[in-house]
Amino acid sequence: MKITNLKKLNDEGVESLPSQERRQFLQFGLCITGVFLGGTVLSLTSARNVQGALSGGRFLSTDFPYSPHYTMVIRESHCIDCEKCMDACRATNSVPAHGYRTTILERSVPITPDRRDRVFMPILCNQCNRPPCVRVCPTRATYKDTTTGIVRMDIGKCIGCKTCMAACPYNARYFDEEIRAIDKCNFCYDTKLKESNGKTTACATACPAGVRVFGDLTDPETDAYKLIHTPEKVFWVLRPERGTLPNVFYVNR
Q1: Is 243 helix (H, G, I), strand (E, B) or coil?
Q2: How wide is the angle at C-alpha 242 spanned by C-alphas 240 and 246, nearest 5°?
Q3: Pairing of strands 70-75, 248-251
């Protein structure tokens, strides 16, 4: 069953998405329901019972470019802006005061005509499957790990030109004055992830509200996999119009 036949879902903006990208999201077990807010948010829902274009209706590890294929699901409505995730990230990854690997944005959401609510949105490197930062780096200091798909930095090759910072659509990179090179989130690749044998990151461990759910998209035993495959859950990614195919997904609950 192709995505265009899925109960005629509210597909505002969906047809503007290249067919290759629609197929990619189907591979991830996700079905596109709409593109909203001027094309800056892509809405997705679990495709657990949908016959994917390449997966034959099953969610197989062979459908992914990497193994493990790491992801993070952000349960946005759970965030209380305590910043414990940011503190843990700084301590674990030696992030200087002038930099960040993750941060929390705040936005105002209308609830009623005379009432608005504050919503906190954690932001980090989206570990894109098509990372523009890798494409523009003149020295190949920014590269995508061929095993895990994590976008990493080779500090020794970085010349601090900041081209990757300009290319990143998520503002997820900073220039580290101390090492004179660009730094960013790498899912704690050489720190917490290594220490936990690939199970978790510093920010996910520190969060008291369970906002950040880390896992492997090829492993049905991980919490992230289970959450993405929860029926009726609707997910979204940031700035899909950039064609980056992020590996960070957002969900309300």
Answers
A1: coil
A2: 55
A3: parallel
Residues 6+ positions from 197 with CB-CB distance below 8 Å:
none
pTM of the predicted model over 0.70: yes
Q: Where are the domains of the chain?
A: 3-251
For the chain, the residue count is 253
pLDDT tier, 230 (very low <50, low <70, confident <90, very high otherwise): confident
Nearest 5°: the CA angle 36, 42, 44 is 120
In the chain, at which residue ranges do the beta strands (DSSP E only) sit? 30-36, 41-46, 70-75, 102-112, 115-124, 142-144, 151-153, 173-176, 181-184, 212-216, 234-238, 248-251
Give residue 88's region: left, alpha or beta (phi > 0; psi -120 to 50). Answer: alpha
Any bridge partners for residue 121, and if so which? 105
Summarised one tens digit per residue, pLDDT across range 123-173 is: 999 999 999 999 999 999 999 999 999 999 999 999 999 999 999 999 999
Q: What is the mean pLDDT of residues 220-241?
A: 86
CATH of 3-251 among 3.30.70.20, 1.10.510.10, 3.40.50.10190, 1.10.3720.10: 3.30.70.20
Are 182 and 175 in contact, with CB atoms under 8 Å apart?
yes
